[in-house]
Amino acid sequence: MGYKVAVVGATGNVGREMLDILAERAFPADEVVALASSRSLGQEVSFGDKILKVKALDTYDFSDTDICLMSAGGDASKEWSPRIGQQGCVVIDNSSAFRYDADVPLIVPEVNADAVVGFTKRNIIANPNCSTAQLVVALKPLHEAATIKRVVVSTYQSVSGAGKDAMDELFSQTRAVFTAGEVVTKKFTKRIAFNVIPHIDVFMEDGYTKEEWKMVAETKKMLDPKIKLTATAVRVPVFIGHAEAVNVEFERPITPEQATEILRSAPGVLVIDKRENGGYMTPHEAAGEDATYISRIREDATVENGLNFWCVSDNLRKGAALNAVQIAEVLVNRKLLNKAKQAA
Ligand code: 11C
């Protein structure tokens, strides 16, 4: 028997990707329903070789739906995810609304799949922020091998993380620069075309941004609360694919060769590290791919047991839609969905 799956936010960047990935991975669904706010009612989205007409979220009855992949923003999640969960449908929520709640598991299957069982309290599972997802996929096997003490990470995040309007803004600003037209800035705080902006999400009181705070809180929740992490999150004029320069200090010695071998056999990771021109991965090449790519693995000789590496992934896939579908696969493979109906 297959499952009934709803995708909320089906017309957005991540929602469309969720539909593509469900089809690509032949998720065992008998029925897939595309939902969105009434603004998108009647729009069409593709699901494999089918076209789905978008239905309204606010009139949809979730009681016979097994899984809801939710990517309609934090406000919609806060309003809808608890209600959907109460109807016995497990919500895999891509927003930050529930990530830090103790009774909601935050899951990257390669890192902490076993924690998924905690979903029965509210029938909600949180999907991490894109910049954290790819980072913890890389850190987990290294932490197991040599115990991470501290991480310093700088991100180079593509505009698709900020939604479709942000992608349009990069496109139209780039065109305006080339045609000597007016460069209009709406979505970002400064011009993004031919620029970089050290600001993602809102500012916090301590001077960090919420994006940077999320990387700290989510790494601690999923991997180990003892890990110290500091981040600088930067937006770059790239459409799809987040990159990260990562510096790690370990408790025990680990050589670049050992780290390379460990990462080569780690789930979800592909090492591309030839130490020659072009022998590394870039966001452009990672777009549309599932892996978290690791390149430039080298010793940081300025600290004891230090390594540097470069980490790249498609933020809409591993950073959002793919991870959500992988969580759904964990629920199916571990036969956990009947627990959702009992919990409701
Ligand atoms: C960005 N990382 O690139 C953000 C997008 O908490 O799920 C995802 C925000 C989140 O702008």
UniProtKB/TrEMBL annotation:
Occurrences of domain Semialdehyde dehydrogenase NAD-binding (ranges): 4-119
Coiled coil: none
Entry annotated with the keyword Transmembrane helix: no
Keywords tagged on the record: Amino-acid biosynthesis, Diaminopimelate biosynthesis, Lysine biosynthesis, Methionine biosynthesis, NADP, Oxidoreductase, Threonine biosynthesis
The enzyme's E.C. designation: 1.2.1.11
Gene Ontology biological process terms from the UniProt entry: 'de novo' L-methionine biosynthetic process; diaminopimelate biosynthetic process; isoleucine biosynthetic process; lysine biosynthetic process via diaminopimelate; threonine biosynthetic process
List of residues binding substrate: Q157, R235
The keyword Magnesium belongs to this UniProt entry's keyword annotation: no
Name of the protein: Aspartate-semialdehyde dehydrogenase
Domain of life where this protein originates: Bacteria
Taxonomic classification: Bacteria, Pseudomonadati, Pseudomonadota, Alphaproteobacteria, Hyphomicrobiales
InterPro entries: Asp_semialdehyde_DH (IPR012080), Asp_semialdehyde_DH_beta (IPR005986), NAD(P)-bd_dom_sf (IPR036291), Semialdehyde_DH_NAD-bd (IPR000534), Semialdhyde_DH_dimer_dom (IPR012280)
Listed SUPFAM superfamilies: Glyceraldehyde-3-phosphate dehydrogenase-like, C-terminal domain, NAD(P)-binding Rossmann-fold domains
GO-annotated molecular function: aspartate-semialdehyde dehydrogenase activity; NAD binding; NADP binding; protein dimerization activity
The protein's assembly and partners: Homodimer.
UniProt-annotated binding residues for phosphate: R99
SMART domains on file: Semialdhyde_dh (SM00859)
Active site: C130, H242
Similarity section: Belongs to the aspartate-semialdehyde dehydrogenase family.
